[in-house]
């Protein structure tokens, strides 16, 4: 999983390691059965690879990028 995510997302080593670790723990059965695998919040500046990391993760786990729920808060940065 690490290698696949790193091939699609550059410069996010810490985020990739954290995400891959959470997925590995879940697949090893080291999580509560009544809880989700994990909840990921990718926060940061524009252009840092947040969306691409989420899409790559969705592709690897479900086989498609379409099984992804995103909440875009960028419109709240605009001054009104």
TrEMBL record:
GO terms classed as biological process: cellular response to heat; protein refolding; protein unfolding
Enumerate the InterPro entries for this protein. ATPase_AAA_core, ClpA_ClpB, P-loop_NTPase, Sigma_54_int_dom_ATP-bd_1
Signal peptide residue numbers: none
- Give the highest taxon in the source lineage: Eukaryota
The alphabetical list of record keywords is: ATP-binding, Nucleotide-binding
Any one GO CC term of the record: mitochondrial matrix
Specify the ATPase AAA-type core domain's residue ranges: 35-80
Q: Name one GO molecular function term.
A: ATP binding
PANTHER family associated with the record: ATP-DEPENDENT CLP PROTEASE, HEAT SHOCK PROTEIN 78, MITOCHONDRIAL
Q: What is this protein's record name?
A: HSP78 protein
Q: Identify the coding gene.
A: Hsp78_1
């Amino acid at each position: 999983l690490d290698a696949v995510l790193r091939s699609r997302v550059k410069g996010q080593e810490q985020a990739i390691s954290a995400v891959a670790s959470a997925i590995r723990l879940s697949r090893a059965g080291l999580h509560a059965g009544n809880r989700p695998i994990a909840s990921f919040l990718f926060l940061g500046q524009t252009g840092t690879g947040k969306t691409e990391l989420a899409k790559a993760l969705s592709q690897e786990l479900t086989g498609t990028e379409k099984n992804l729920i995103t909440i875009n808060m960028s419109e709240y940065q605009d001054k009104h």
